[in-house]
Design brief:
two-stranded antiparallel ribbon; about 55% helix
Amino acid sequence: ARQFKIIDDDGNRSLDFKEFKKGLRDFGVSQLEDTEIQTLFSQFDNDGSGNIDFDEFLVKLRPPMNNHRKDLIARAFQKLDKTGDGFITVEDLRGVYNVKKHPKYLNGEWTEDQCLKTFLDAFDDKNNKDGQITKEEFDNYYVGVSASVDNDAYFTLMMTNAWKL
């Protein structure tokens, strides 16, 4: 995280090609040609936005998730997928995710369905917001979360508390 902040010259929480290239040079990677740096930049820029956000940066630099974390994520998905059809939908979330204390529900701005749909949107592929969360989308969300949590015990605590596993 500290390295990302150092490279992020304009402080917008994303790296453009110029910042990425300068960051590589600042950290002693000076032997690469511009075309090689562009290829590397493209590998980090998963969504093709032309910028590398913090999660994209972390995911590429962190080692793969261990089996314990993968198991926790699989257990959470199974718990949420009430119908067992391989998708989490608004219907699956009823009774599992309580919206009664959501501020927009409390003030009458949103219905229960709107709260549940908004919750699902956090996991849904931003290029395909279909209101159904696949196992792959759920896993991808937690790859990003996992990349920002160094300690296995803390990740376990977070997952077991969040999903009552």
